[in-house]
Amino acid sequence: MNVKTICLAILTQGETTGYDIRKRSTEGDYAYFMEASFGSIYPALSKLEEEAYVTSRTVAQEGKPSKRVYKITPTGREFFINSLYDELNDDVFRSEFLLFLRFVEDLPRSLVEKRVNERIAKCNDAIENVKKLEEEFTKPSERWVLNFGQHCMRSARQYLIDNKQEIIALAKQEDVPARAAE
Amino acid sequence: MNVKTICLAILTQGETTGYDIRKRSTEGDYAYFMEASFGSIYPALSKLEEEAYVTSRTVAQEGKPSKRVYKITPTGREFFINSLYDELNDDVFRSEFLLFLRFVEDLPRSLVEKRVNERIAKCNDAIENVKKLEEEFTKPSERWVLNFGQHCMRSARQYLIDNKQEIIALAKQEDVPARAAE
DNA sequence: TCCGTCATATATAGAGTTGATATATATCGA
DNA sequence: TCGATATATATCAACTCTATATATGACGGA
Question: Is the CB of residue B36 less than 8 Å from the CB of residue B21?
Fold first, then answer.
């Protein structure tokens, strides 16, 4: 799945701008399973316009820079829907947090506790964010996907809460005696 | 987290080759939270050698091509452990499957059912794979991480099983009448 | 025996992507 | 007034992936 496909997917649901595509893919309703940056979105939209899968027009705005609004063409829509019949690539999960945890034996206890708590806090934020999105969405498939996401995040959070003492206990004892000797 | 860091992380646990780093990051014990391809691993190892974070030697093998075995230096080890004190980047999750599911209203029921079953099968494979890995690993932090991964995968699989009929029901009815009219 | 496939192993080119930065306008709060 | 934040487009260097090339040997089937 490349950025062109992501753009087409979002454009299938209505006209929008490169700025908005980026926002939705990093903070909005698409953020939990895809991402794209400006450096890939703008070139992707240009290429899609060359290929006649989208058209664009410039819209002036008061108090804001004028924006370039993209719209999917019938050809583009057809191309996108057809691509949904292709074999799906595997899900990708990457976590610096889990890499970090594999080395807790070499790290001070306070640092490990801090990072685990930060991770739990991020889970909380993400769950709250999805809850808000669910209120906005009415399309049944979108709600199903958001519920699935929320379920997975709650499950991960619960595991962290239930087992955090165990992983923290594996970390190195702090050098408390050294400081006490000062 | 870049590929250089992944290489150092794996090399921290013993000497190995570029080929093996790729294998472990795509199929082995690191596969569930990171990934790297040949095109990034070999250049990364070269740069790490330039920077004196690793050394290499060529080892001839019978019945196999000779291999280049890399070893982390004390400087490299120190650099890696220090980098574990840095702020952690957010976890990344990308799923073509979830993008696909947002468009089930436009897709035939048989295709949706097929893809959901494929996803459940992949979950089963992944869970079995992690179980095997857990038998091999004795380091407590590694087991904790694998258990966490297994917990998350089981939870996702259960949600898919429990709610698959609901999402399949949202898909388009097949064009059975059209075929019957032939 | 020959051929294709698979596994081991290194390497690279081209395409795609990220992360950082530049530019411009406007609002909001300190 | 100054910095931060938000909207909005755009680009570039560095990085990464996908696909391919090269080489060796094992294994199985035709």
Answer: yes
CA atoms of A92 and B93, how far apart (whole Å):
6
Nucleotide nearest to B22 (CA to C1'): C9
**A121 CA vs C29 C1’ separation (Å):** 28
Give the separation between CA A150 and CA A156, rounded to whole angstroms. Answer: 10
Q: CA of A36 and C1' of C17: distance in angstroms? A: 8
Q: For residue B94, give the 3-state DSSP assignment.
A: strand
Tell me: the pLDDT tens digits for B52-81? Answer: 999 999 988 877 788 999 999 999 999 999
Q: Is the CB of A4 under 7 A from strand C?
A: yes
3-state secondary structure of A9: helix
The answer for residues whose C-beta is within 8 angstroms of residue B20's C-beta and 6 or more apart is: none
Nearest protein residue by Cα to C1' of nucleotide C27: A63
A/B interface, count of CB pairs below 8 Å: 168
- The one-letter code for the residue type at A108 is P
Three-class DSSP category at B70: strand
pLDDT, one tens digit per residue, over A143-178 is 999 999 999 999 999 999 999 999 999 999 876 555
Instruction: Give the CA-to-C1' distance from A92 to C25 in angstroms.
Output: 39
If 0-12 CB within 10 Å is exposed, 13-18 middle and 19+ buried, where does residue A58 land?
Answer: exposed
Residue A28, helix vs strand vs coil: coil
Q: How far apart are CA B44 and CA B2, in angstroms?
A: 9
The dihedral through the CA atoms of A36, A38, A39, A43 has a sign that is: positive
Q: Which nucleotide is nearest to A67 (CA to C1')?
A: D8
Q: Is the CB of A46 under 7 A from strand C?
A: no
Q: Which residues pair with B94 in a beta bridge?
A: A92
Helices (H), chain B: 3-11, 18-26, 38-50, 74-83, 96-101, 109-136, 140-169, 176-180
